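Lab meeting, action items carried over

1. Structure of the four-component assembly. Owner: GW. Status: complete.
Input record:
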Amino acid sequence: MEKVTIYDIAKKTGFSVGTVSKALNNYKGVSEKARNAVQLACAEMNFTPNSTAQTLATKKSNLIGYVFSETLGGGLLHPHFVQILQSFKTEVEASGYDLLLINSKTTVDNGFYEHCLHRQIDGALIAIPRTEAGRVESLINSSIPCVSIEDTYSEAPSVISDNKGGTMQMLAHLYSLGHRKIAYIAAPQDGVPGWERYEAYLQFMTERGLPINENHIVFATNYTRKAGYTAAEKLLGKCWEELPTAVFSAYDELSYAMQDTLERRGYRVPDEISVAGFDDILISQCATPKLTTIAQNRDAIGKLAGQLLLRRMDGDTSVENIIHRIPTSLVVRESTRRILDQN
Amino acid sequence: MEKVTIYDIAKKTGFSVGTVSKALNNYKGVSEKARNAVQLACAEMNFTPNSTAQTLATKKSNLIGYVFSETLGGGLLHPHFVQILQSFKTEVEASGYDLLLINSKTTVDNGFYEHCLHRQIDGALIAIPRTEAGRVESLINSSIPCVSIEDTYSEAPSVISDNKGGTMQMLAHLYSLGHRKIAYIAAPQDGVPGWERYEAYLQFMTERGLPINENHIVFATNYTRKAGYTAAEKLLGKCWEELPTAVFSAYDELSYAMQDTLERRGYRVPDEISVAGFDDILISQCATPKLTTIAQNRDAIGKLAGQLLLRRMDGDTSVENIIHRIPTSLVVRESTRRILDQN
DNA sequence: CTGAAAGCGCTAACAT
DNA sequence: ATGTTAGCGCTTTCAG
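Predicted assembly:
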């Protein structure tokens, strides 16, 4: 009973494979009698259709590829993407799709597009940073439906947090607490999140007529805590003459490092200096004091990405290659507070 | 240039599809001339073999299923499994396998085995807790090679941390610091990790001649922080007459909640009471004070699981259905300290 | 060394 | 309503 095919159940029921196939796929021209006989036989023989054969015959695999990069510590290990993926998965598997992990790190000679073609996937969720845009170019320009979440591409719809809005939310929060000297630890300027957040900072400061102090801006080399410590040291080395009253970072890990560095140097957070982050990753709730940050709605991102991809795969041509912005939300915890004395 | 098959390159080169196939698969009986012609044509026409057709013909999909459950907040969202999966993936993709996510939460009528059969996977990595053992029974008993990581099954090799050893490591550490009244917050007794850690605690206490105090033992209902707070309250409610000098939990989240609860009640950790955890998840480094815990070697687990599965899929019959224990390591941070005054 | 042809399991015309 | 048959793209005997 290892491999039972529709031929087996055709033989058992006395009907032809064609009829069996039709019955199995709920086609119209099949008698009640045949349908029942087929169902019974399938149950008895424990028949499971072979998706490989189905795919070969129909050119539909019911497979969605999750195309991602493992550089930047991204990929599966980054909770941000995993959470989006989870939500995406829930959305698409309700329509019968399975998820295939595709990151041809090893298959050097073959790119993402070839890999996708090879596996006959019906669509792809792409999480590739701009720095590796070249790797997904052929895929995005192919006829395989795609949706992007990590970065934005003009050839596919993308779903991404409202980085600008989120940055503005936090800055408005700090401003309302009386902060005017707001330092900024920027994320690396190698992709949309880093760019947009930094630009929003500059815009906010300009709009409110606050001076943009070069000594209050520093760039982290990546999104790790280690880079955060380096950036924190650098910032403190630059701004000791005129300390900011608040430090806002483009990513929670950077804020965490900043917070820790400040405490070690004897500054009290938030009494002497406020610290704010972006992302609301798990550690922000565990930090001491708990970090005020901007939360991304990852479930919404995954869900919308799933819906868009499903529509594309269904041939819905009304899905445009535009950027969908998912609103963020301000999470006020303990690392920010009203400024006490202004000098 | 959308779909190029070996027929196309056969036509272009003038050779037959058989020869083309042989050349592509590096078979013996193919002339240098034919081989070169085929390679050239493939490159020019951007040929990518169709894995679906290959699978149908060879019955080998080069697909490995990651079979997991989404209950218990497990699945992709649990960093523990994701890290193991990452390591596993690195191991198997070096051999040309792709990973397919399989968790038939939605496909209620079809179980894991049917799902795997449907997709023709070559092997499966199973992360299913004992509480759902029935769902993987048919899969594990089938001819599909399997390796288990979340729980142990007698029908497949499993790779799992040395829970007993780890528990003993921590208890020995606490003992060496002078602790004798060691309370224990057990994980739910619904699976191997929970069982083994709890049993090891009992064994250690017995071996060292320490009394097993019912008021110093409490069971968490699950692995979440919330359950941890409940357990912490329960423990403090039971043991106020005779406080333990140390509290050891079967999981870091539980320890985190314990630590937080103690601080809120005015106890200083570790000065008045030591707290220890198990797992070394991310938050343990962020807790205040940083948590002393037992680290699991997830990379080693994933790697070994991958190696075992590869061997099984290669038909290596020397791979036994045994439990492979991966050593843990004691990570001493700031939440445990030598006991000061013994009464 | 190369070509022809059968077959993998299923679907989808096309007949009947 | 049911049966027949030709593919889907590739591998693999088996001849030549």
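2. GW to write a short summary for the group page. Key points so far: The first strand of chain B starts at residue 63 and ends at 68. Residues 3, 5-7, 17-18, 20-22, 24-25, 49-50, 52-58 of chain B lie near DNA strand D (CB under 10 Å from a C1').
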